[in-house]
Structure formats: structure tokens, C-alpha cells
Amino acid sequence: MSPSPFTIRAATTADLRPLVALENRCFRSDRLSQRQFRYLLTKAHATTLVAVEADVLLGYVLILFSRGTSMARLYSIAVASESRGRGVAKALVTAAERCTLEEERAYLRLEIRKDNSASIALFEKLGYRRFGELPRYYEDQMDGWRYERALSPELRPRLVKVPFYEQTLDFTCGPASLMMAMRALDPTASFDRKSELRIWREATTIYMTSGHGGCGPFGLALAAARRGFRVEVKVSDAGPHLIDSVRDQRKKEVIRLVQEDMLDQLESLQVAVHYEEFSVAELEQRFAAEEIPVVLTSSYAIYREKFPHWVVLTGSDENFIYVHDPFVDYEEGETVVDSINMPIPKQQFERMTRYGKRRLRAAVLISRFPSIEE
Prior knowledge:
CATH architecture of the largest domain: Alpha-Beta Complex
Strand content: 25-35%
Number of domains: 2
Number of strands: 15
Distance between the termini: 72 Å
Shape: elongated
Radius of gyration: 23 Å
Helix content: 25-40%
Structural class: alpha+beta
Largest sheet: 8 strands, mixed
Number of helices: 11
């Protein structure tokens, strides 16, 4: 006699105790607490689905939805040992994919322990693609694999293999993005925290910690040019840039002079600076021509904070622009996997690439100089 069918539904706070009990039975480490489950059920941009049979919890799957992108993350899945072999896990993953599409997300990602052969086999059978690894990712130092599935089969992104570097300070998104672009073009380019801070010192216009200031297009372009890369700047106005929050006129004057000096140095290095608008289509064309765009965005669309934020473009398809975002929003339960090749709808990316009251648009285009043989 075959087992009775189970059903899948959205979890509620009434499921908290059985969810925690199942979590503790299935995992020895990296467990979700009752407080975390409650937050995920009531406040987070997330969905938890449960498989139940006669009011008994057989398993659950938890999906997190990234703000401002078309990506979701399968954060956790667990099935009671006595219920395995009945297709519960497959049914939960299928339900998670439907939920992801209903939330208008095109990609679903997850991490799997390297020693979890059953999960690896399941997700690979369901069409998930391994695209990276996470050394010592879990509490017990076990490594993890990164997996992804495009839920819209027509998506065929053109991606460049850009190494990922996570910014280590709140204000080093520019240096981190620039380092990723340079490393993609030159595998010997520096890729460590000393380099991140060195580039920040070279590129920043912050004056006595007043206002956002930070790394503008001239400073980042200058740092790349000094390191032997071919550089071009597209910026919508002559500046001074990134001074919306600076009130003191003397400090504004210092920032203006710093940017003018950077511009003089760019001219001496024969770096082209174009004061003009650019389109997403133009960035795609430059990318296709083996240039790596480092692009200024407003962080509001994703992080609900009105800060200037740099990202590096890693690819595109008919619907999306893909970026590495050097910031990982751990407070929202995200990990590095959520910041790699983030898919952003093109229209939304067009809006994101306008910062501040002046709607500043800026891109630093990095490429290699042709060799003598070329």
C-alpha cells in the first residue's frame, strides 16, 4: 500500500515549534533558531513552504528574495529522515521554483555542503548548474558548492569570468569593483585588502569624514591608469561629484580642488573623459568589445539607502544586466552567492545608474592596451 499523499502550503507562526524540532533533527550545525524562523516568517522578504501529512511536518523549504534584482535564494531545505524517499524534497524544490516565478524572479540559487551527496544529486538532476565554491563556508569548516538555475529557459547570459572581491569596509565599494575589473583583465593584478585600501586612499575625495565624498569616477580612473590599464570615463557632468551631503562651503571647495587635480593627472596620462550621458545598450556594446564597465549606482533600489555605490558589470542578456556587487548584505541573511552575477532588469538598471539630486551618471571603462603582436 503506497503512502498517503502529502500537501505543500505556506508556513505560519503556528509551525514554529515543529520547524525548530525538524531543524534540530536534520542539522548538527548552521541551525536556524526559533527567533530566526519567526523573523523569516513575519518580517523578512522570504517565503517558507512546508510539506505536511495529517498535520505532521515532513519537510520545509525556505526562499529569500533579493531586493532590486531578479534573483532568489533557496536558503534552506530539510526533510525528516522517516519521510525521505517519497519525493518530498523534489516536491518542495518544485514548489519553491513556482513561488520564485510568482515573485517575478528569474534565477534561484543555493549553496550545498560538499559532503551532502544526496542534495548534490537531487539538484543536479533537477537542472541546477554548479558555478562556484565556498571554502570553509559552514560552521564546521566544510566547503560548499554554489548552484544556480535559470527558471526562464530563454535566458542565455553572456558573462565574463570576473573574480569576486567583497568590500571590507562600508566605503570601499569603488576600489573593490575596480579590483574585480582589473583582475578579470589581468590575473596578476593585486587582489587583497592592502590593495583595496591603497586604491581607496588614491581615489577618495572625502574631507575630514564630512559627507559621503568617497571614490568618484576621476579617482577610480586615475588608480586604474596608474596600474597600466587602458581607461575611459563617461560622466554626465563635470562635477564636482558626490557632494550632495556636504554642507560646508570650505569643504566643498577642497573636494572640488581634489577632483580638479585628479582631472589634470588624467589629462597628463591621456585618459579620455567624456561629459555625456550613456545608455545601458552602450555599456553592453563596450562589454562585448572586451571592456569592463565599473558603474556608479544609487544603493536605494536594493538597500534602501541613498548612498553612491559602485558595481562591476559582468554580463547581459535580452532582459538583464548582470553585476558583481562588492557589498554582501549579511543583515538580510544574504551571502557572497547573492552578490555574484546579480541579474537586474535593464529598465531598473537604467534607473539605478542615476545618483543624487543631479542624477549623476558615471562609468569607468577598463580594458587592456593592445599588445605589439595585436
